[in-house]
Amino acid sequence: MKKEIVFTLLFVLVISSFASAEMIINQQPNKVHNIGDSVTIPVTIKTITGVSGTFSMDLLCGTKQINFYKNGVNLVYGEEKTFDASLVLTKEVVGENVGNCKIKGILGTEYFLTNEFKISNLITLKPNTEQSEFEPGQNLLIYGDAIKENGQPANGFIELELVIANGSSNNILQKGTINNGMYSMNVVLPEKMKAGKYLVKLNAYEVALDNTKTNKGFVNYNIQIKQIPTSLEIILKDKDVKPGNPVEIKTILHDQTGESIESTSVITIKTDTLEIPEGAGPIEKKTGEYFKFPIVYNEPPATWTVHAVSNELTAETSFTILENHEISVELVNQTLVVTNVGNIPYNATINIRIGNISKDFDLFLPVDGSNKYGLKTEHAGEYEVELMDGTRTSKFKEKVVLPESRIPGSTGYAIRDFSESTTKEFYTRPIFWVFVLLMIASLIFILTRKYKRRKEMGVSKKSVFKKKFSEPKTNTAWENRAIQLSKESKLKINNRANLSISIKGNKQEVSMANISVRNLAELQAKKSNAEEPLQKIVNFAENKKAFVYENQNNLTFILAPSKTRTLKNETAALEIAQNAKEILSNYNRIAKHKMDFGISIDYGSIVEKTEGGVMQFMGLGNFMNNSKKIASCSQGEVLLSEEIRNKLTNVRTERKDNERVVCYKIKDMKYHDEGHSRYMQNFMNKKTGEASGGTKYNTLPPKEKSQNTNQNTEKSTDPKSLIKGFY
């Protein structure tokens, strides 16, 4: 029993000698360390009985163990010591050993292991890709963050490659730096870079003192290069067009590299007098598709122009309508009818053959003119008849059955030219000379009778002519109606109005439409054709018997009862305003330089006096200024004042928020009775007529129309059409 106790005590003493020191890890390594990081492992060794030996630390990565720290230990009873061991993760130390590792501390026969951590050589790139579409020639700013896997910002270099084509020497290469985890590079894209997707490659890395690359990272992403319209081309199938054939036109919209772009274009054809033929535009057509416009057979020779607009690009070309010297021949009841189907007068010598006998005729025909040649033969039968034109080209050749006729001469055939015989035979007929003699006798009788009457009344020949010509008739109002234009204005205005500061005249309640073109001076400086739509509006308003007042960038149309002969001019003012809106909107649709305009309608009082077709007027109260303020608030729509809104009872309006002036925009229309519906239908018919040929319609209701058949017709007003486009 005593022996067992002794052995137990000896065993405890031996064990306590081996466990005489305790190793405490003060700080575990981080979960991730990148190459170049310094790993510090502070360890405290505390002994109970005293310890002496060597303390070492090794890096364990997989099956590899690398010693990186050794230090001697000599501690007495109860003493402790802290060792600050550190490891710099360089390639010389760790080599290519990346992955999960541990650190092992060893003292004598005792050891400890740290938590597992990862050694990494990865850099994560986070490029900013908010903008993915770019235009050719644009600056491409590439920037973002570069963070190592340990969460620390990288410091190194970054290389950019913009791949134009795989393996191409045209690829864009650029090198930049990474500072505190951020990089930024500016690349100028080529002006003629083809539209499409392109690959952007980014490679980041850090370098050691020996210039070897340590941590690395890369990222790839795509950018899109836009297709930018740079030029518009007009292609004519034939630049020389024969009358009767269509001219075929198409447009090609090219991008920065000359490639075609699918889009639409507006094509307009103009004659040599700058007129637009019916159906010649403006017409919208897809690019690449032919637009066919027929040229009538008798269109005179000329050079016409083709204008195209697409994506704010314009193009212009021309084609020539050729001369066409041509006739057609048809047989009608043994008579050859020759017609000029060319586009110039036909002047040539033609040849007509019957059987074996032929004869030449000098033929001159205006465009669409015709002449007849009667065919006769002494013996009835079937004969070959041929007509050849001036170039001896056969235009008619057929077997013709001719009846028997009396033919003077010995040939047995006769061709009667009606263009010559008609005049000659008429003057050789006796009836013509009988008619001439009767006319001469009647004239002598009338003159003799007048002479006798004058002699009896004692009126001299001189006094008769004096009475006849002493008082010439004139029409002062119409002679003075056209007023000479001022030097500043290019508009042709017949019913002109001039503002007067002080005037004595008649007070009238008038309806007024005002158009404000805010950028008129800019348009005139750019030599645009802004006056053309304004002239159309002036013509329309003057047809409504409106006076026109010009003031800088404002056109004011005044409907005065003294001119219109009616007190209800509100609807006419609304029609003028809506017509102006449609004309200007259509102009902006195709024009390169847009017109910034506003339209208002107002009702108020003026004092006016009309002399020589010109109205001098003065606005009462704030009438004129109020109308201009409302127009300045308009952004292309028609706005109504409070006063005229109360007059237009069939118009539903909505107040427009504005601090400067009270105004209303049109929301809807109301209809009242059957008569009013007929009134609106007349206006719709009128619009259809204008679209097909410009026909005017009477605006009077059925009962009034029958009582005023001798009055001039005017355009009617359809409220439904007036609000077209307001929404």
CATH top level of the largest domain?
Alpha Beta
Can you name the CATH architecture of the largest domain? 2-Layer Sandwich
Helix content: 10-25%
End-to-end gap: 116 Å
Structural class: alpha+beta
Strand content: 35-45%
The DSSP helix count reads: 15
> So what's the overall shape?
elongated
CATH superfamily of the largest domain: Nucleotide cyclase, GGDEF domain
Q: Could you tell me the radius of gyration in angstroms? A: 51 Å
Number of strands: 43
Classify the fold: give the CATH topology of the largest domain.
Alpha-Beta Plaits
- Low-pLDDT segments: 8-19, 459-487, 690-727
How many strands, what sense, and barrel or not for the largest sheet?
9 strands, mixed
Number of domains: 5
Q: Overall pLDDT, averaged?
A: 80
List keywords for this structure.
alpha+beta; Immunoglobulin-like; 727 residues; 15 helices; 5 domains; nine-stranded mixed beta sheet; disordered C terminus; single chain
Q: Mind explaining what this structure looks like?
A:
This protein is α+β, with helices and mostly antiparallel strands and 727 residues long. The protein has five domains: 20-120, Immunoglobulins (Immunoglobulin-like, Sandwich), CATH 2.60.40; 123-225, Macroglobulin (MG2) domain (Immunoglobulin-like), CATH 2.60.40; 229-321, Immunoglobulin-like (Sandwich), CATH 2.60.40.1930; 327-417, Immunoglobulin-like (Sandwich), CATH 2.60.40; 497-669, Alpha-Beta Plaits. It contains 15 helices and 43 strands. Strands 35, 36, 37, 38, 39, 40, 41, 42 and 43 form a nine-stranded mixed β-sheet that branches. β25 and β26 (313-321) form a beta hairpin. α8 runs antiparallel to α10.
